[in-house]
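Entry 0007
Protein: VOC family protein
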Amino acid sequence: MTSRLTEINVDCADPARLASFWCAVLGYVVLDATDDLVEIGPAGRVDAELLDGVRRGPVAPSLFFARVPEGKTVKNRLHLDLSPIDGTQAEEVARLEALGARHADVGQGDVSWVVMADPEGNEFCVLRSLAPGEFALA
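Output (structure tokens):
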């Protein structure tokens, strides 16, 4: 018996703003929204097909952004790692900065990935590119 990762929840001050940022980053769409909770995920997921897919194997999880009264105060204990698929790591970092992300220093030192923060300060990493010509299997 196993479980599947189906949702990731992020506490935030402005769910609509953060959902919009992450939709642009991941190519997701808003699946459901209220003033205090926004769910985003891949487009075109019919419930019955999604359930069947989840039972067969891992699927891309949806993200929930929930309004909370307190602000972020320390480094995330959990973060997302992104791998560019259409361009270089540097090009993706520039695209994310244009969307509102910023570089973040969490004491990572000299590493091959880039630590960034979303508009509310939640850290995430941009890993090596998986784009053709940028990544090859050994």
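Curator remark: The domain at 72-138 is CATH 3.30.720 (Signal recognition particle alu RNA binding heterodimer, srp9/1). The chain has a mean pLDDT of 91.
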